[in-house]
Write a structure and sequence with these properties.
- There is one protein chain.
- Helix content is 37%, strand content 27%.
- Strand 3 and strand 4 form a beta hairpin.
- Helix 1 packs across helix 2.
- A 7-stranded mixed β-sheet has the order 1-2-3-4-5-7-6, sandwiched between helices.
- The protein has one domain: Aminopeptidase (3-Layer(aba) Sandwich).
- It contains 6 helices and 7 strands, in the order E-H-H-E-E-E-H-E-H-E-H-H-E.
- Pfam families: Acetyltransf_10.
- Keywords: Transferase.
- One of its GO terms (molecular function) is acyltransferase activity, transferring groups other than amino-acyl groups.
Length: 164
């Protein structure tokens, strides 16, 4: 079941899932971008304050995956998509993504690490296309609040026309 997260009640669980699942990035993304915890409580709180709404995939009253959506003027951003390590490859990410896609009537953008091949494959299988470098740089600087080094090492995917 997919339900909107209540960050006041579920903050600790969202934080735990993000940091559990993000271990997949260790040794894959540039070492100067990796840190532990991957996302601090303060960083998560900042994301929520900036308008990221988290949605949960729950089964037997346990949150197994989370994904954020952020509406930014003429685009929707999919943010922080994570599934518990123990629950991967069960379709949870796809169900969350399809739910969030249905919520948007405007183009959807997703930023992820350029070296995270599994994430890129997941999004392209779900109807997104990788944007060219020049467009990626412009979009990351306009819609995201990330360091220049992260812009250099990331990509942006966009919903294909008719997908949103």
């Amino acid at each position: 079941m997919i339900i909107k997260s209540d960050p006041k009640k579920e903050f600790a669980t969202i934080h735990e899932i993000i940091n559990d699942a993000s271990i997949a990035y260790k040794g894959v993304i540039p070492s100067d971008r990796w840190k532990e915890p991957y996302m601090t409580e303060e960083e998560l709180q900042e994301q929520i304050i900036e308008g990221v709404e988290f949605w949960n995939f729950e089964e037997n009253n346990k949150i197994l995956g989370v994904m954020g959506i952020q509406f930014k003027n003429e685009v929707t951003l999919i943010r922080h998509a994570y599934v518990r390590t123990s629950e991967r490859q069960k379709g949870i990410g796809g169900k969350l993504l399809r739910h969030l896609i249905q919520m948007s009537k405007i183009p959807i953008l997703i930023g992820t690490w350029a070296s995270a091949s599994w994430a890129i494959s997941f999004y392209t299988k779900n109807g997104f296309k990788v944007l060219p470098e020049t467009e990626k740089n412009k979009l990351l600087k306009f819609y995201w609040n990330i360091p220049e080094r992260q812009v250099e090492t990331s990509i942006v995917l966009a919903s294909v026309v008719g997908n949103c």
